[in-house]
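Marked as duplicate of an earlier ticket. Keeping the data here for the record.
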Amino acid sequence: MTSLMFWPARELHSSTKRFTRHHPRCLFFTAGPLLADIDEQWYFKPDAGKVFASPADETLSPPCDAQPDEYDVAVVADRIEQATTLRIRRLASQWAGLRSFVADHGLVAGFDSESDGFFWLAGQGGAGIQTSPGISMAVAGLINDDQLPSELRDLGLTEESLSPSRQR
């Protein structure tokens, strides 16, 4: 999972971070919720008959073809085994990717105040899939109507909370 950003005239202060995921074989765990520790040091969930696991790492990285770090893979396996009765004997696969973050770890969506017509959508980090229904509504409203839809404003979301200018 790689996030791409195109830079307008001024830089938005963001960082790219590498993360690691792997699939230990676990035949009995085929359905259920995502499970994570309270400190967000790991998570796992069933995925296509296997277990999808991650150390929930955020390692600063330049843009690159991210590769899993063997230490990170060992750490997540150990953390999951220490916290559960699962025993990870063999990995079916492992991979790493890049995610984009801004300083406050919030989403960024809005027109750039210094680059006419440039619209920012960045900072999804590890929550792009979970936030996509809401952020797509927000983006459509901001681009088409120059404001957030009332459904999102009623929930307390503001243009300012998404604004790229909050990161400058």
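See parent ticket for discussion. Residues 35 and 44 are 5 Å apart (CA to CA).
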